[in-house]
Amino acid sequence: MLIEIAPPRFDVDLDLRYASADNLTAAPIYARSLCLLHADAVAPLGRAIALARGLGLRLRLFDGFRPVEAQWLLWRALPDPRYIADPRRGSNHSRGTALDLTLADGAGRPLAMGTGFDDMTELSHHGRADLDPEAQRNRALLAGVMAGAGWLSYPYEWWHYQLAGAEGYPLLTDSVSGGKMMAK
Predict the structure, then answer these.
(1) Quick one: which of 126, 183, 173, 117 has its CA closest to 2?
(2) How far apart are CA 135 and CA 13, in angstroms?
(3) Residues 4, 134, 157, 167: which is the catalytic one?
(4) Chain segment 106-116, per-residue pLDDT in tens
(5) Domain annotation for the chain: domains and CATH numbers
(6) Alpha carbons 18 and 117: distance in angstroms, whole number
(7) Partners of residue 163 on adjacent β-strands
(8) Pick from 54, 157, 142, 53: which is nearest to 102 by CA?
């Protein structure tokens, strides 16, 4: 079961990049700006929201559930398994068990992370010592918030977090969202 993640029920900012051209494909992938997550991810998301709020910060979500059909579009744009899961193997986004996100300050300004979202280069990897100290601190802060809430990081993308055991969930198509995600 997928749950819509949106204010006011969830105290997050939405910047759903795949519903716009501001992503690695330079074209909208989703027909609607809609963030969905598997029901099992809701409690860990709530814990992350609370941890960030306690630091005077907010979560800004770039992506959640990604239908298998969308995963194929991303794979065709960048068939590099370090950054885009091969849709034949499956993406944890296509299971509704992964999030792409960043931290924002109380005024909604994203914190500096050293690269932008979808910067599919080695500078986006966790543990980079060649970033400015502010970006290193902010990445560590995001990692701490997410780990404290029960999410696992992905080594090649500072913005990607997933549930433990995510691979055990089934891959989902746009049909589970009632056809709301992908353009017809």
Answers:
(1) 173
(2) 20
(3) 157
(4) 999 999 999 99
(5) 2-177 (3.30.1380.10)
(6) 11
(7) 151
(8) 142
Q: How far is CA 6 from the centre of its chain?
A: 14
What 3 state SS string does the chain have?
A: CEEECCCCCCCEEECCHHHCCCCCCCCCCECCCCCEEEHHHHHHHHHHHHHHHHCCCEEEEEECCCCHHHHHHHHHHCCCCCCCCCCCCCCCHHHCCEEEEEEECCCCCECCCCCCCCCCCHHHCCCCCCCCHHHHHHHHHHHHHHHHCCEEEECCEEEEEEECCHHHCCCCCHHHHCCCCECC
What tokens were used for 105? 């300050």
Render pLDDT for 75-118 as a digit per residue (tens, 0 to 9). Answer: 999 999 999 999 999 999 999 999 999 999 999 999 999 999 99
12 phi, psi to nearest 5 deg: -135, 160
The pTM of the full predicted model, rounded to 2 decimals, is: 0.94
Report the 10 Å Cβ neighbour count for 107.
6
C-alpha 39: how far from chain center: 16
Whether 157 is catalytic is yes
Q: Which residue has the tokens 């005077």?
A: 56
Taking alpha carbons only, the member of 10, 118, 12, 111 closest to residue 61 is: 12
- Distance CA(30)–CA(71), nearest Å, equals 11
